Amino acid sequence: MAKAKKKNTYSTPYIFAAILLAVIYVINTLLVERIYWGNSQVSQQTQKTMNSINRMNGELQNVNSNVLHVVAGIGDVSQAAADARLNFHNIHEAMDDFENVEGLSDDAKKRYRHAKAIINTYNTRLEEFQAMWNKADPSGNGKLGAQAFGGDMNALYTQDIYPLQVTAQEMLQGTIEIVNRDTSKKMAANAKRSYLLMIMMLLVAVLGEVAIFFIARRAKKARLELEERERNLAEVDAKLKSTRQKANDLAVMNVLTGMKNRYALDNDVSDRLESDRFNIAVFDMDNFRSINDTYGYDFGDEYLATVSEKLKEEFGNVAEIYNITGNEFCFLFNKEISESQAMGIVQNIQAVMSSPFEVLNLAVQLPCSGAVYHYLPGDCLNVNSLLVKLDTAMRSAKMNGGNMINTVVNI
What we know:
By secondary structure, the chain is an alpha+beta fold. It is built from 10 helices and 7 strands. The chain folds into 2 domains: 217 residues; 146 residues, Reverse transcriptase/Diguanylate cyclase domain (Alpha-Beta Plaits), CATH 3.30.70.270. The strands form 2 sheets. It has a 5-stranded mixed sheet, sandwiched between helices. A hairpin with a 2-residue loop joins strand 4 and strand 5. Helix 1 packs antiparallel against helix 5, helix 7 crosses helix 8 and helix 8 runs antiparallel to helix 9. It is rod-shaped, with a radius of gyration of 61 Å. The relative contact order is 0.07.
């Protein structure tokens, strides 16, 4: 649970930061797309209008060219009329394209309507001239056709036909100028919007960076606080473990001598009674009460502590030593120690414990008695019965004068 909570605490701010970055990216993308779409729309609109007007102008030029050929007497009237009809058909298609363009200004539409009216008048006038020509010259003789207009085709062209063509092109050119002007205004407006959008993008980016900075700062603060709490918890846990360990140590250790006590012996030996063979011995000072009666209990405690340090120093490498009661010590020999070796070590233990010890500037010497048990698997049901056998053998030695070692006899 703690690990999951820690992971969630660390990851949540960064999830927010990632979402914020994604939002900023989407906003910037939409703004850029808006700028591009606006410019693209204006460009497409301008291109369509220019294409339509240029087609109209081109077709008007073709009509004028055909008319000039007829006026000059070098063109076929019937063919020129057919070409003119095709030209005006193309012009009307271009007009349809122009009128389908959306977003044109009222000025451009107005100028275009004037141009359209003149072009239609131009078309109607040419059709009237063609009808009069065909009526005057059903046989196709050019001179007869020309006589229908007074014989002076040049005057007819310059006074009646050409002015319409020129006026139509001027109107179309005016439409182009208005469209170009409108396009410039739209592009300028788009440019202004682009600058505004870029400023907005910059503001959004800056605000995003600021937000991410504060999120990161908050996440760092939360992480540091969490680490501080974890350190505090670790310290408390270490203290608790130390306290528990001390409590456990006190439960299985004699505070005076620093040796394991009777409960520790029970823990160490109980599981070995059914299956193991081992050597164990107990020793007790003879007439230790005389020390307490003569010098006091504090002196007796110092004496036991001194003896304990000497025993650990001399025999700690061959046996686990226990202080099972006040002045009674138990030696559980290592597995590699044989029975004969154990007997030799037991005699050395008796010699050390019976030697003089200097305590508080006083030399004290007491004899000791002991018992050794070469234990076989299944000899005892529990540690209590094991110690009873050892204590019985040791009391027997004391009753026989003390300062001796008895061996527990297996029955």
